[in-house]
Design brief:
12 helices, mainly alpha, 238 residues, globular
Length: 238
């Protein structure tokens, strides 16, 4: 109901005027491509960790899994403050990044760092479930036939778990697109769409923030529908 109310309230004229606004287009594009980059980073760096957690037991594993889930549970302004504490100019790591030209505060890089941090748990948990669904004996058979660990992963594990991984990428990107609380602390500018909506709501009211939200919902709906269609099992597999 709230979504229907939001989508149905703005007039077609308001929607047309909003989508012609360069600031709106820029903010929606920034939201989408930073979320995609965050999901790609989660895929590259999260896959080895997810495989490790799915296939190996070690001392402190439960603690690692709990730390992985922390960004889901803690308030997101706290996430933004924590990232600033670590990567801001007051910390040696932040000073080192500044020396090599990496700026976190008020930059696209900062937005990507935040979105990766909040979206990573969703990818990790989905990929871990996918790896756990692959019988270990299949990997053992592959290894017994002389395949290396890497070859076994790409020829056995990955083909049987890629739908879970794609689902995780979709969830990671979806979570990243909707992030506001942490981004507004680390990088108010350049504005992603949720921050622009917030600014227009506080400055001009509901009437000027709703059309931005409608366009963001429509763009995200199209993107995620396309990804869901790609991840559907084929008729043969069914």
């Amino acid at each position: 109901m709230p979504l229907f109310q939001m989508v149905s309230q703005p007039s077609l004229g308001a929607l047309h005027e909003t989508i012609r606004d360069p600031e709106v287009l820029s903010s929606i594009w920034l939201s989408v491509y930073t979320a995609v980059i965050a999901a790609a980073i989660a895929f590259v760096f999260g896959t080895p960790l997810a495989y490790l957690l799915a296939r190996h037991d070690f001392v402190g594993k439960k603690l690692v899994e709990s730390i992985v889930d922390l960004p889901i549970m803690i308030p997101h302004p706290v996430v933004g403050i924590a990232i600033l504490s670590l990567l801001g100019r007051g910390h040696p790591l932040g000073q080192l990044m500044a020396k090599v030209g990496l700026r976190i505060m008020g930059s696209v890089t900062g937005i990507i760092v935040v979105l990766t941090f909040v979206g990573l748990p969703f990818y990790l948990n989905a990929a871990k479930s996918g790896f756990e669904s692959v019988p270990v004996r299949l990997e053992n058979v592959s290894r017994s036939l002389g395949a290396s660990r890497a070859a076994t992963f790409f020829r056995v594990t990955f083909p049987l778990s890629w739908r879970h991984m794609l689902g995780g990428v979709i969830m990671c990107a979806a979570r990243a697109v909707s992030e506001f609380g942490a981004v507004v602390i680390v990088a108010y500018h350049p504005m992603i769409a949720p921050v622009l909506m917030y600014e227009r709501f506080t400055a001009y009211g509901l009437k000027y923030s709703q059309p931005v939200g409608v366009w963001l919902i429509l763009v995200c709906l199209l993107l995620f529908m396309a990804l869901r269609l790609v991840s559907l099992p084929s008729k043969v597999e069914r």
